[in-house]
Amino acid sequence: QVWLVQSGGGLVQAEGSLRLSCSDSGRSFGTSSIGWFRQAPGKAREFIAAISWSSGNTKYADSLKGRFTISRDNAKNAVYLQMIGLRPEDTATYYCARKFAYGLASDALQYNDWGQGTQVTVSS
User: Fold this and answer.
1) How far is CA 76 from CA 38, 52, 97, in A?
2) b/e burial code for range 42-63 (CB count within 10 A of at least 16 → b)
3) What is the pLDDT of residues 66-105, one digit of tens each?
4) CA pair distance 45, 37, nearest whole angstrom
5) DSSP letters along 23-84, please?
6) Is 30 exposed, middle or buried (0-12, 13-18, 19+ CB in 10 A)?
7) Quick check: 51 and 104 in contact, CB under 8 A?
8) Which SS3 state, helix, strand or coil, does residue 13 take?
C-alpha cells in the first residue's frame, strides 16, 4: 500500500474556492490515472473526477462538472482539484487515488492507492 500525499483543504465560506493537491512524494504517476473522491459523514464515497497522467484526458461526475476541475502538472508531478462556488453540501473528506489499469473510472474499487484524505468544510 502506497499512500499518496495530499495537501490543501480547510475551512471556507460558501461561494469560496479551494485547491487540493495530490502527489506520490514527487514521483511521476507514469501511466496511471488519478481520481478524486469525497465522502461525507454517513454517506457513500462519491466520485468527483479523474485524469490520465499520460494523456491528460479527464472524466467528471456530471453533478460536479463546471464547479470542480481536475488538472495535472507534469513538472511538479502533482494532480490538482480546483473547486469553485463551494456549497455547504460540499463539506466532506476528500481523497485522491491512483488507478494502475488503463482507462478512467468512477468506481472507487478500481483504484489501488489512496491519499490520507483532507477535510473540506464549507460554512454557510
Assistant:
1) 24, 15, 17
2) eeeebbbbbbbbeeeebbbbee
3) 999 999 999 999 999 999 999 999 999 999 999 999 999 9
4) 7
5) EBTTB--TT-EEEEEEE-TTS--EEEEEEETTT--EEE-TTTBTTEEEEEETTTTEEEEEE-
6) exposed
7) yes
8) strand
CA dist list (Å): 29 to 11, 61, 76, 85, 123: 29, 22, 11, 29, 34
On average, the pLDDT of the chain sits at 96
Q: Are 117 and 3 in contact (CB under 8 A)?
A: no
Q: How confident is the model at residue 3 (pLDDT cuts 50, 70, 90)?
A: confident
